[in-house]
Amino acid sequence: MEWKGRRQSDNIEDRRSAGTGGFGGGDPFGGGRRVRIPIGRGGGGLGIGSIVLILIVCWFLGINPLTLLDGGMGGTNFQTESNQQASTPQNDEMTAFVRTVLAETEDTWTGIFKANGRTYEEPRMVLFSGATQSACGSASAATGPFYCPGDRKVYLDTDFFRQLDQQFGASGDFAEAYVIAHEVGHHVQNLLGILPKFNQMRQSMSETDANRMSVRVELQADCFAGVWGKFTQQKGILDAGDLEEALNAAQQIGDDTLQKRSQGYVVPDSFNHGTSAQRVKWFKRGFDTGDMKACDTFTGPV
């Protein structure tokens, strides 16, 4: 991706030198309810496999894993390598990359909204190291990137990109850009009233039905990310292989792939982001069409 030398967004809050914040309950959809992941319990607590599964799914659901557990882990602070590392310099290349990708999403969605007679309200992105607070509760390195509709901000510990490469085999700058574009896709959903509607509906849903609806929400965010990718391609700034990087990332973070990797089997009723095939399909649909109207994941099968 030929991103260097392009406009960088000013909608950045860099908290990486602010230290870590306290932990509290939270829900990235802003609905005030915890999204629970069915897990097996043995003895008096959770096994290592279950903990790994929780962390992996939380990375891509965008939820503080502490809020998913009513017992067993209590207030434990999950430590990852990024908690141990010094804060990243605010003017490093990764910061410039994130600012540039965010600016590209601003340009794309401003144009799309204008063409549809609407005004795009740009989100802010919070860069943090270790942990921080959001209107949806606490964010930590274990949380991974997520969007909080309560304050209309995307939260990102940039060390996540190293984990995306080393732990999930999804390398490349366009794979990283896909992650950002997906979270911005949730902001688009929030502006369109889709997230508030989901929050309202899930209050009366069973856990299984809420998970199924969550899959549709997440796949639409993937499709919106693909729409952004199409506009980026039209600018001529994508390199050969960039699309494949994004599709590989979508493949690697499907619920079925993550569960097979962590525990050797899948629990479809616990899926909340979609299978690898679904995530690839909907990102590709957005990329192929460049039309957000093609991103209706709520009608028919996904």
Description:
By secondary structure, the protein is of the alpha/beta class. Helix content is 46%, strand content 7%. It is built from 10 helices and 6 strands, in the order βαααβββββααααααα. The longest helix has 28 residues. It is globular and about 45 Å long. It starts with 11 loop residues before the first strand and ends in a 13-residue tail after the last helix. The relative contact order is 0.15. About 23% of the residues have low confidence.
How many extended strands? 6
Overall mean pLDDT score? 80
DSSP helix fraction: 40-55%
Overall 3D form: globular
Low-pLDDT segments: 20-88
Compute the separation of the termini in Å: 29 Å
Total DSSP helices: 10
Secondary-structure element sequence? EHHHEEEEEHHHHHHH
Q: Which structural class matches the secondary elements?
A: alpha/beta
Record the strand order, biggest sheet. 1-2-6-5
Radius of gyration, taken over Cα atoms and rounded to an integer in Å:
18 Å
Strand content: 5-15%
Largest sheet: 4 strands, mixed
